Amino acid sequence: MRKNLSIESLRGLAAILMAAGHVIGSDATRGMTVGDDSGWRLFYLLLEDVRMPLFAALSGFVYAYRPIDDGGDYGRMVWGKVRRLLVPLITVGTLFVAVQSIIPDTNAASTGDFLRLYVFGVGHFWFLQAIFLVFLLVGVLDLLGVLDRPRYWMVITAAAVLLAIFVRVPEPVDFFSISGAIALLPFFLLGYGAHRFISNPPRVRLVAVVAVAFVVFYAVRALEIVGVVDISLQALLADRVLVGFAAVSLLLLLRDRIRLKPLAWLGQFAFAIYLLHVFGSAAARIVLSRLGIDNDFVVFAVCMLFALAIPTVFEMTLGRIGWISWAFLGQKPYRPRPRQPLPAPDPDTESPSSAIRPVRSRR
């Protein structure tokens, strides 16, 4: 079955935004080690509330093609996510910590990070733990049938938004990235609902309302980042969640306007890019440093190229080998897709993954 070009394009966009954030670095000691007062830091912060929420929403959108019907479905889903998410957490995550512990100039980790990787999450691998917990919870909600109706879905999604705003998990007890799961849950549910309950193309009025909300919330966030306004911590947390919710909603509503073959092609490698981009960007950064090249624009461009290219080449070459693909990517071996003509916009009757079957309606 053909891929959904719109969703694949958004996956490609999400991969680019995620890689860009990690190339720049979350603070002045990571990535490009740019100062907190630089334009690069501003760029990082302005996209911070969109990158991983978009990944979570796309996961929810894809999951909604085949929601859980019974206990057997739930068991198969859990096993599938163990293989897809937790196996790469162990293999790629262990390799990541080992490389950081051994190789200089890689934002070095300590041996204690091996334990933290499996219990709390290290680096970008927190997402694997968090989204695994989200799948477990949403699967249970589907078993209970509480996501079958739009009204119930809206209530639960609103509750998830409030949970993300007001509940903070103390770091010492943040086992298996529970806080990350709380942060991702509203966006996963947003993607789920966008697939099942929102018409495509959407109503113009709905798009307009979401666009206005995004502009308002994003303006507050931008003014806070540059220090023009000072708001309370709770208000800031609320605004950040709402920025992400409005931005991702807008992307999902306008997904048929974002149907670009280059992005869609890259989107098929989004998970490999997520897992392996740090190896490409770190290698490029080290080589550039040894060559004495420190121009930020050059460093960013080269590191982005390697962050996207290395995982893509890995999947297209070594990813063809069964045990390597299962062990490091948690998926079937790579097989090139046959070329297809650009399909017309479609009201979500295409599957975004050849491994996902159409929903078996329970209504």
TrEMBL record:
<feature type="domain" description="Acyltransferase 3">
    <location>
        <begin position="5"/>
        <end position="314"/>
    </location>
</feature>
<feature type="transmembrane region" description="Helical">
    <location>
        <begin position="41"/>
        <end position="65"/>
    </location>
</feature>
<feature type="region of interest" description="Disordered">
    <location>
        <begin position="334"/>
        <end position="363"/>
    </location>
</feature>
<dbReference type="InterPro" id="IPR002656">
    <property type="entry name" value="Acyl_transf_3_dom"/>
</dbReference>
<protein>
    <submittedName>
        <fullName>Acyltransferase</fullName>
    </submittedName>
</protein>
<feature type="transmembrane region" description="Helical">
    <location>
        <begin position="206"/>
        <end position="229"/>
    </location>
</feature>
<feature type="transmembrane region" description="Helical">
    <location>
        <begin position="85"/>
        <end position="103"/>
    </location>
</feature>
<dbReference type="GO" id="GO:0016746">
    <property type="term" value="F:acyltransferase activity"/>
</dbReference>
<feature type="transmembrane region" description="Helical">
    <location>
        <begin position="175"/>
        <end position="194"/>
    </location>
</feature>
<keyword id="KW-0808">Transferase</keyword>
<feature type="transmembrane region" description="Helical">
    <location>
        <begin position="235"/>
        <end position="254"/>
    </location>
</feature>
<dbReference type="Pfam" id="PF01757">
    <property type="entry name" value="Acyl_transf_3"/>
</dbReference>
<comment type="similarity">
    <text>Belongs to the acyltransferase 3 family.</text>
</comment>
<feature type="transmembrane region" description="Helical">
    <location>
        <begin position="152"/>
        <end position="169"/>
    </location>
</feature>
<feature type="transmembrane region" description="Helical">
    <location>
        <begin position="299"/>
        <end position="329"/>
    </location>
</feature>
<feature type="transmembrane region" description="Helical">
    <location>
        <begin position="123"/>
        <end position="145"/>
    </location>
</feature>
<feature type="transmembrane region" description="Helical">
    <location>
        <begin position="266"/>
        <end position="287"/>
    </location>
</feature>
<keyword id="KW-1133">Transmembrane helix</keyword>
<keyword id="KW-0012">Acyltransferase</keyword>
<keyword id="KW-0472">Membrane</keyword>
<keyword id="KW-0812">Transmembrane</keyword>
<keyword id="KW-1003">Cell membrane</keyword>
